[in-house]
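User: Predict the complex.
Assistant: Input components as received:
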Amino acid sequence: MSVDTDTVKRVARLARIKVSEEDATRMTGELNAILGFVEQLDEVDISGVEPLTSVVEQTMKKRTDGVTDGGKAADITLNAPASEDNFFMVPKVVE
Amino acid sequence: MTDLTKLTIAEAREGLKNKDYTSLELTDAFIKNIETANESLNAYVTVTADKARDMAKASDAKLAKGEGGALEGIPLGIKDLFATQGVHTQACSHILDGFKPAYESTVTSNLWADGAVMLGKLNMDEFAMGSSNETSYYGPVINPWRKKGSNQDLVPGGSSGGSAAAVAARMCMGATATDTGGSIRQPAAFTGTVGIKPTYGRCSRWGVVAFASSLDQAGPIAHTVRDSAIMLKSMASVDAKDTTSVDLPVPDYEAAIGKSVKGLKIGIPAEYRLEGMPAEIEALWQKGIDWLKDAGAEIVDIAMPHTKYALPAYYIVAPAEASSNLARYDGVRYGLRVPGKDIVEMYENTRAEGFGEEVKRRILIGTYVLSAGYYDAYYLKAQKVRTLIKRDFDLAWENGVDAILTPATPSAAFGVADQDLHSDPVKMYLNDIFTVTVNMAGLPGISVPAGLDNNGLPLGLQLIGKPFEESTLFQVGQVIEDAAGSFAPEKWW
């Protein structure tokens, strides 16, 4: 399978990365090189094979549903590019 | 007085205990080396000299009372991927500009609890995506090694290029690193250092910037097999904050060093013999086989028929997981924000400016293979192939194999800005061809320096072990180290 420039632009939109016309053209070639490389997997007989979901056989660890952390709003917003009163500030989303 | 920066961790541990020198003297010697070397090598992105001296003084106070942990007073470098409280933590990306976490990663917390001293944060490929340390926002790291009679700049490998170069150039005693497809073992091989990626689940991933969560593991890079065993013992732990951290006690890895390898079965997979592989690497591999045979190990041929599919499967799984993990960098919670006319344009502008080309490439591939209609054809298929890769290893273990010996890399270190490698992203990816199988199967792998090529550049051999059998890797690795000797670059910086 290979991608065209329109697909690259659509995927970039999904990934929320702005691409120029020039970027999209260049990336189409690069992405097709990678997709061409992974096409080798078509040679492998995977019938009846289960997908690997965990490399280590271990049952998911569980803990009691309790509060173990919190009260750190100032720490959490500490690195925000824009914040006010421990809230993240973003451009207006609702008109 | 002897040059303190030439000591191994094991030697310094003795010297500090015997009060031959203080941690402050040791730390100052490394800070001095960093000051002289960093302009040429670019291994550190931030140096925490004051913090290092404070930590060293605290260690000296403990050592004076005959107290202290396993790494008391030992100066280390930390890869920029590990969260360090109040200190530069940016995965060497522009998008994390100015990020200083309010918390400490579990791995670094373990090191500080054992008394280690932090010298600073080390350069790396952006978000650990790269094999040459050239994707860093802070520029490439230069390998302290050069070809005989040449002054061409070589790469130290990646993504832990800063860690490997800093150890090789004596800018720290040991360094933390991470490995998703070979990012500890390939740079270790390129710089004549020892690097181990432990079993998935051995070191906590908590506080380590995520790249591909099912593959990422932290591990050390150090001068010797013993030093890497000392560091891993401190880095590894069982951590409630990481659900993939495995509930197994951390063994005393050093106890395995010096043990005979007599009777151990070492597997040699023919599939790692690549067409067009340099004769020197082939010869080195044979040398390794001979060393282990001489030491009494039994050498057996094994079949790993799915080896060649590990790298293509990796280039579906890793970008898919990365595209999901890196969705969090949106200009809202941390780092860079580039304004736009609305919130979506703000996201798009921020991510376009904040991510480098390689990171964007992987996010796009990952987004594509996970998008509606393609999931089964790519991601699901790759996860099935992964089962087959793991099965190849499981069969070897079932047949009594204790460890597998392979070359660490298909070549020695290459030039900075190599035209051929940059013309096609896949060519760069091939650097990880021998290491990536180990991540796909979650196994431990160690790279040990084994010799120099005709140009005088270091080459490494890789040992792959059973899950949580890191001790066997240290045991066998020591035999290779004893036979091969150690390698240091000639100082030009």
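Chain B touches chain A through 75 residues (CB under 8 Å).
Let me know if you want any component modeled separately.
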